[in-house]
């Protein structure tokens, strides 16, 4: 079962990603409890101020197990991936600016810096509509396959990790890479890491310690008022 610490971590992760511009008023995140249930922020929760009280537990059919608030309408994203991927322990559905812009113009995600290579091949789910049915959830899970992330055309992104820390770090890496890729495209053709370079980056940068470093960096940025 998910512990209070895991629930608290989920609430904090959602707050940080919201204040960092990756989640807006309607994004959501989840942490697996067991084979049949998971924690997720409620649909009505204010993402920038979400707390443990906004976290509910539901089963893979969307039925409440713990809590009274309704889950987000797109809970099938999480349910379908947890069904299909026993290795996944946490999922984020974000609405980030830069990676979404890439999908709007049909520009594929390309790893242009080290951490961006950790996402591997990032497919595009070719629909901007909400994933709010079992069938659409299954289609999205199929598009994700065994990967770490899938982009939703003109909509957002879904990131899957073995645990919350990994999922958080991959969420920010995806958007950091997309931002650099987009900005480089305004100047010319970005350099894309070779297959060998990508493999080296995955070997060197896939680290719980570095994931923790990313967490602490974004946490500190969101806690400290800007001096500019």
Folded structure, characterized:
With 228 residues, the protein is of the alpha+beta class. It has a single domain (4-215), classed as Class II aldolase/adducin N-terminal domain (L-fuculose-1-phosphate Aldolase, 3-Layer(aba) Sandwich), CATH 3.40.225.10. 41% of the residues lie in helices and 15% in strands. It contains 7 helices and 8 strands. The protein has helices spanning 4-19, 75-84, 97-104, 134-144, 164-185, 195-205, 208-223, and strands at residues 28-32, 37-41, 55-59, 64-66, 90-94, 124-125, 149-152, 156-161. The chain has an 8-stranded mixed β-sheet with strand order 4-3-2-1-5-8-7-6, sandwiched between helices. Helix 4 (134-144) links the parallel strand 6 and strand 7 (149-152). Helix 1 (4-19) crosses helix 7, helix 2 crosses helix 4 and helix 5 (164-185) packs across helix 7. The N and C termini lie far apart (44 Å). The relative contact order is 0.15. The model is unreliable at 1-5 (pLDDT under 50).
Given the structure, what is the number of helices? 7
**By CATH's scheme, which homologous superfamily applies?**
Class II aldolase/adducin N-terminal domain
Can you tell me the CATH architecture? Answer: 3-Layer(aba) Sandwich
**What general form does the structure show?**
globular
* Helix-strand makeup class: alpha+beta
Percentage of residues in helical conformation:
40-55%
If you consult CATH, what is the topology? Answer: L-fuculose-1-phosphate Aldolase
Q: List the strand order in the largest sheet.
A: 4-3-2-1-5-8-7-6
- Total separate domains: 1
Give the terminus-to-terminus CA distance: 44 Å
Biggest β-sheet: count, sense, barrel?
A: 8 strands, mixed
Low-confidence stretches: 1-5
